[in-house]
Amino acid sequence: MTTTRTCRRSRPARPVTRRAPRRAAGRTVAAFVLLSLALVAGCGNQEEAPVAPKLFVFGLDAATWNVITPMIQAGQLPNIAGLVREGSFGNLSSHPPVQSPPMWTTIATGFLPEKHGIDGFMAPLPGSNREVPVTSNMRKVKAFWNILSENDTSVGVVGWWPSWPAEEVDGFMVAQRAWPMNWSRNGIPFGAARDANGDLVVQDFPGRTYPESLYEQFEQFVVTEEDVTAEELGRFFADSGFTDPAKQFHARWVYAKDRTFTDAGLWLVERYRPDVFAIFLHGTDVTAHYYWGYQTSEGFDVDEADARMYGGVVRSYYRFVDEAIGKFLAIAPADAAVLVISDHGFETVRDLVEPWEKGEEIRTEIGGKDVPWDHSLTGVYIMKGPGVRAGHRGPDAAVEDVTPTLLAYLGIAVGEDMDGRPIESIFEAEDLAARPVAYVATHESGDPRGDEAPLESPVDDGIKEKLRSLGYIE
Ligand SMILES: [Zn+2]
User: CATH for 52-469?
Assistant: First the structure.
């Protein structure tokens, strides 16, 4: 019966049973009755528009205006351009040493690293002389997904860095390590083995998704580096006829990972319709590290054939990300809000170009790289949605302002103890007057949280190899 189907679409199945809301019962019941009436009234024969997610968060690693602005001007990022045109945007400053796990955790919590406890890529494993990649259990404060879950707002999070083990939320979570193919350069995948048919079998380990049972559904979307076809990869290069495996390696693995999370994310959004959906995409950073120096547009003196083959990878990757955003917007409610953010930017370090081209040894200040391109302190924010000013160049903000802004937008109190503050001036004045930002002293329970030590996983060596090849660890 059509009626049942359309009604069901509005009240989505959840991967977990929702806990009882902690709000005052009277108000919740009244709201529930009104909502039910609205749903009954809306249950006609026509396909009903989805009501959630009401907010999408796209975390784009190292996304920079240095790439976005010229591409928007050239008409190459239609979806991001639309968000800029219809929303507010500005610079989002990062903090040294400008590393992804601390900065994405600051973005997700509103706290600086000294308070949230994730202060680098790696952490020492007690009782050994080894270090392993940082894990989510080390976080000393709540992330927005915890706060939303406690405030009657369901949430889906995919691929955040760091997010393993996945945490219990009102909704779902796919940890970054759920993409298992941390491939080695010599073709041996970590955390996986080949069966008699030569097919890859991924080693099981807990915490890849919340709930645990979601992994089975997620797994159907896993794209491995081997699965990526030359034709698919060809979109990033001049053509699909290139033959240098070393030079396509980085685009290949990060595309496999981002495509996995994008495809799975689209499916999860359609199936579970969380109130807030957040996804992290990695390739804008990885392609910049490896292919930035082939861009003649950045003033580099590049061999013509190399410039042709590799000079467009960074921009092609931004196009892929723009298309991914477009796919989510296509299944979003018409009035869904969108927040695009990066943890830091990326730039050509101009005064190092000449010495580098002369063959002198150089070191960048931020990342200590021996090439004249590196992370920059200036990332991006773009926010569009009902109540957000349109076409508005907002003030400079910082990574710790993201969670306060997200909470304020959703009408959830901001923690006074957070280091960040909502970017209030991007909200419409009338909305802000009618619904001023609320504050609570803290969202923390008072109980200490956050373990000192990281947890080990079967893909640690693969992650380490990737971090090493990015020049982040020795
Ligand atoms: Zn980077």
Answer: 3.40.720.10
